[in-house]
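Q: What would this chain look like folded?
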Amino acid sequence: MRKADKLFQITNLIRARGPITAQQLADEMAMSVRSIYRYIDDLSASGIPVYGTRGEGYRLTENYDLPPLSLSDEELEALMLGMAIVKNWTGKTLGSAARSLLHKIESTQPHTARQVATNLPIGVPGYELDTAALSRWENLYQAIKHRYPAELHYVDADANPSERKIYPLGLFYWGGKWTLGAWCCLRDDYRAFRLDRITGLALQPNNPFPFDQRFTKEAYIAAVRCS
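A: My prediction, written as structure tokens:
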């Protein structure tokens, strides 16, 4: 988590639960009390009216609130388009997060958000994507995040079946088709696999693949650009 995000979260905790002690903040944020003291000093230096009372904890000045987020129509369009893409074209985890974020935006700027959504000149239909491919998207997303190897059954463009052990490195969307970028243990090289051609998938969560500069999304992209 970035420092700015930590400061924002600490401010929200103090605002919602103050007075709150440094130990309670440390427990909530999963950090040391010493780190909390440093962040409190940073908040005070930046002008946030936070003060502490011995034996009680920290609180904010009465009636203080964070300034509301103000977005232009173009910023709202970009945000809502991005959320629609994630909601319609990805798996369960990110799709749910996108819907939640959309509800939050609509609750803070209801009139503007509805107007922008109605007039948005770009459509993001989800029904064009292959249902079977999207059903595997979530598993591969988790495999990439946690470095799980996978075994897959694959059928290429010539209908030739094969079985591969791979290290999933990244998911890429190419205008209608999702592609998995991976390290193929059989070929000892990078390979791309279309999700709609994967006929079977089994993750190996108990045996994460090693940390190696070859086994990263960035290395895969660099190799593709050079090929």
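Residues 3-60 form a domain with the Arc Repressor Mutant, subunit A fold (CATH 1.10.10.10).
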